[in-house]
Amino acid sequence: MQNVNFIKHLKGIFLQFSKDNRLNPTHISLYIALFQLWNNNRFLDEFHINREEVMRFSKIGSKSTYHKCIKELSYWKYIIYYPSHNPYKGSKIKMFKFETSIGQALVHNNANIETSSGQALVSINKHIQTNRNNKNVTKLDQPINEKEVIDFFKKENWPKIEAQKFYNHYQGIGWKVGGKTKIVNWQATAKNWMIKAEEMSVRAQSRTNQKSVSQNMDNLKTSKNKNYNEPL
């Protein structure tokens, strides 16, 4: 069991949230739900969780979103997630202390986060910087948030509404092509979306032009030199 100062911990974690651009509201909501369960378990070093309960507390309605966010929180060292892969045995969570002090703040680039075991964990800011400098760990299976998609479409000279349609479509099906195959590079998928949108626009314009021509034609017009002696 850890000795956690509720107020200092929340102050420290929200300070860290403000400096981490990878997070979206769902990550934060999920973390707060886990923190509340940690509190209910009297700040044990590790505790079991129930997925349905955590989703209810965090107001997350999608299982795929839940699993994505909890794995990212673990990868980014906000928590450690031990999935059980057993429906009759809950997964386990290990939480870290994010308390700040007058002498030293956890968010300092050279600071370490102290765990209950006394071991030092590389600070999250340093971990973030390492990831930014290492292009090989950049994940492109899905964007960070809607704004990233809008910025990408804007760079490709596409309107905001098209970016929102793309984001909402794939967000709704868990960033999978056809709802089955996981996307490897969302930017490439977005470019394919743009190509298809252009093709659809060209087809629609072609149909409009054909309809206009058809309406302007006099289908009853006959030649002035028609020979009525010829059989029909």
What fold name stands as the CATH topology of the largest domain? Arc Repressor Mutant, subunit A
> What is the average per-residue confidence, as pLDDT, rounded to a whole number?
79
Q: Please give the domain count.
A: 2
Q: Would you tell me the structural class of the helices and strands?
A: mainly alpha
Instruction: Please give the largest β-sheet.
Output: 3 strands, antiparallel
Shape by Cα distribution: elongated
Helix count, DSSP H or I runs of 4 or more residues: 8
Protein name: Transcriptional regulator
Region (Disordered): 204-232
Organism: Polaribacter batillariae
Topology of helices and strands:
Blueprint: H1 6-19, H2 25-40, E1 46-49, H3 51-58, H4 63-75, E2 79-82, E3 91-95, E4 112-114, E5 120-122, H5 124-133, H6 146-155, H7 160-172, E6 176-177, E7 181-182, H8 186-216
Antiparallel strand pairs: 1-3, 2-3, 4-5, 6-7
Descriptive report:
The chain is mainly alpha-helical and 232 residues long. It has eight helices and seven strands, in the order ααβααββββαααββα. Helix 6 (146-155) crosses helix 7.
Describe the structure concisely for a colleague:
The protein is mainly alpha-helical and about 230 residues long. It has eight helices and seven strands, in the order H-H-E-H-H-E-E-E-E-H-H-H-E-E-H. It has helices at about 5-20, 25-40, 50-60, 65-75, 125-135, 145-155, 160-170, 185-215; strands at about 45-50, 80, 90-95, 110-115, 120, 175, 180.
